[in-house]
C-alpha cells in the first residue's frame, strides 16, 4: 500500500483514482462498508482505491484535550486499511491553513485538479471545508459538473444500532470488550515500541514492557488479560493501562507483564490485544498491597488463557 504524506506530495502519477474521505478511527465494520464500496468502484473504473484521512484528526485539532479518545494511531490505521486491500492512503496534515480552506476550493483544487477523482464515496453526514460549510449536496453538485460520481454509503447497522467510533469508545470505557470487538470486527489493540520505564515492576517481582500512549485521551483504563504479538510470536500477559496512581504518575502508559518471558525487547514493536478486563486501575496504600493485587491479576489472566 502506498502512503502519500501531505497534499504537496501528490504527484502527476496519482491523478485518476476512486476516493473516500474520513477519519477511519478504529477502522470498524461501519468503515468496512464504505471501503467495500470503494473497492467495488476501483474494479469498476480500473483505478486505485484511495483513502484520504487526517493527522491530527479534526476534532483533536479544534478541541485538543477535550477531543474524543482516539481508537487507533496512524500506524494501526494503515495496517488495518492495507489488510482490507486499500491501495493508496493520502494523509493530510490538518493544520490552520487546511482548516481555513474553502469547501469549493478543496473540491476543485484537490479532488478534481490534483487527484482526478472518478468516484467519491463518503458518509451521509460528511462535512468539510472552512466552518464545515461543505456537505454531500455540494459534492454532488460540483461532482456532476466534473463528471465525478458522488455517492453516500448508508450507515452500517448491527443489532439495530449504528456502528460508530462513539459507540466503540463507550463500550471500551465500560470494559465491554466483546461488544467493542463485535463492532470493530477484531479485538481492540494498542501497539507501539517498548520504552524504558521506571523499572518499578522488576523490584516488585513483575517485570513489564512499557508503551507510551501518544494520544491526547486514551479510550481504555484498567487491568486486562492480553495477547501480545512480538517478533511474529504470540505471548500472553497481563497489562495495566493508566497513570500508575500508586506512584503518583501523570503520564498515560501501557505496562505489560509477559508470562514466562525475560528477553530484552527495548525498542522493539509490540502489538497488544485486550482480551478481557480484569478490574479498574486503583491506588494502593502500600507496595505490599499492590504486589498482592498484581499476583491476583496474573493468576486471573493466566486462567483466562488456560495457563494455570
Automatic annotation (TrEMBL):
From the Swiss-Prot or TrEMBL record, what is one GO molecular function term?
Answer: FMN adenylyltransferase activity
Q: Which CDD domains match?
A: FAD_synthetase_N
Q: Which InterPro entries match?
A: FAD_synthase (IPR015864), Riboflavin_kinase (IPR023468), Riboflavin_kinase_bac (IPR002606), Riboflavin_kinase_bac/euk (IPR015865), Riboflavin_kinase_dom_sf (IPR023465), Rossmann-like_a/b/a_fold (IPR014729)
Q: Where is the Riboflavin kinase domain?
A: 183-306
Top-level division of the source organism's lineage: Bacteria
**Catalysed conversion reaction:** FMN + ATP + H(+) = FAD + diphosphate; riboflavin + ATP = FMN + ADP + H(+)
Function, in words: Catalyzes the phosphorylation of riboflavin to FMN followed by the adenylation of FMN to FAD.
Q: What is this protein called?
A: Riboflavin biosynthesis protein
What's the encoding gene here?
ribF
